[in-house]
Amino acid sequence: MSEVVRVLVVDDEALVRHALRAFIADDDRVVLVGEATDGSEVVEACKAASPDVVLMDIKMREVGGVEATKRVLDWNPHCRVVALTTFTTEWRALEVLRAGACGYLVKNSTPEQIIDAIVAAHAGDRVVSPEVQERFVRAAIEAGENQVAEAPALSDREREIIELIARGLSNAEIADALHYAEGTVKADIRHINHLWDVENRLQIVLRATALGIISL
């Protein structure tokens, strides 16, 4: 059985914490080990709970999510932080991603998307909500970034995987949609990363959009 991911929730809204508590309790891949109501509490909460992943709100009363993310990673560089917020602007996402977060979700994400993002973050992946991802892509296109002369050769399956990544599907959902083993999907994504000299899903989408392989 896969390792159960230990999760700490940081949010100043009681209703949000209650909902996340229910989402996490309903999935045996994750377990809630602690909560904090502000970024000022996060390091002490982490010391008490030893989470694998911190689900972090951005806007809080005393210490916001960007500073709190830095504090978590100063405490433990191996801990993973996933931002969960109402903001969809790309500059908000960049701010917390540059602080060290490995994911950025908006609060209208489904329970499945939130839990999948937690699990993916723990596995080392970077997860960004599709609507925020689209803003990144459009900003990059408008700035004239990530333009390349020609597309490296991809298999039909790799192209399908890229299209599904752009729609925000997890590895497990891609495997189910294409009727392949999840390990095969992961291997294909690693090959795309190597072929295009990129590191994560967001960079794959940026490159694929610049190449005209997908459109948003």
UniProtKB/TrEMBL annotation:
A matching Pfam family: GerE
GO molecular function (one): DNA binding
Signal peptide: none
Domain Response regulatory: from-to ranges: 6-122
Keywords: DNA-binding, Phosphoprotein
InterPro entries: CheY-like_superfamily (IPR011006), NreC/VraR/RcsB-like_REC (IPR058245), Sig_transdc_resp-reg_C-effctor (IPR016032), Sig_transdc_resp-reg_receiver (IPR001789), Tscrpt_reg_LuxR_C (IPR000792), WalR-like (IPR039420)
Domain HTH luxR-type: 147-212
Annotated SUPFAM superfamilies: C-terminal effector domain of the bipartite response regulators (SSF46894), CheY-like (SSF52172)
Residues bearing the modification 4-aspartylphosphate: 57
PANTHER family membership: TWO-COMPONENT RESPONSE REGULATOR
Name recorded for this polypeptide: DNA-binding NarL/FixJ family response regulator
Taxonomic source organism: Microbacterium murale
